[in-house]
Amino acid sequence: MHITMVKKRLLDGSECRKCHEATAHLQSRGLWERIDAVVWACEDDPNSPGMVLGRRLGVDRAPFFVVSDAGGEAVYVSVLQLARERFDVAVSAAQEMQAIDPDDIGGI
């Protein structure tokens, strides 16, 4: 299994808040070592590797994860879903609720 994390690099050169939080979550659970590659989607470069990968896979937000194995490719847009389904890590309902980002919810 090969896991690629796609992170967004903002115009000021920093990584996006959600990418930073996902990395911190993986590190705090001892899972960061399981990420094989990090690819950057640069906000100012539509041809950056992460932007190209996102277009190919139909993903328009970061971070996201691409898992390649004998079964093919799978895309995860949630670090908690990745942890639960690929690393067999328990994820509590409270963690799932905390992971909901108001910026991702349409409406008001």
Q: What features would you describe in this structure?
A:
The chain is α+β, with helices and mostly antiparallel strands and 108 residues long. The chain is 32% helix and 23% strand. It is globular. It starts with a strand and ends in a 10-residue tail after the last helix. The mean pLDDT is 87.
What characterizes the major β-sheet? 4 strands, mixed
Shape: globular
**Cα-atom Rg, whole angstroms?**
14 Å
Runs in which pLDDT lies below 50 for 5 or more consecutive residues are: none
**CATH-derived architecture:** 3-Layer(aba) Sandwich
Q: What's the total number of strands?
A: 4
Any idea of the CATH class? Alpha Beta
Q: What do the pLDDT scores average to? A: 87
Strand order of the largest sheet: 2-1-3-4
The ordered H/E elements are EHEHEEHH
* SS-derived structural category: alpha+beta
Helix content: 25-40%
Task: Tell me the count of domains.
Answer: 1
Strand percentage: 15-25%
CATH topology type: Glutaredoxin
State the main characteristics:
32% helix, Glutaredoxin, alpha+beta, 4-stranded mixed beta sheet
SSE blueprint:
Blueprint: E1 2-9, H1 17-28, E2 37-42, H2 49-57, E3 64-69, E4 72-76, H3 79-86, H4 93-98
Parallel strand pairs: 1-2
Antiparallel strand pairs: 1-3, 3-4
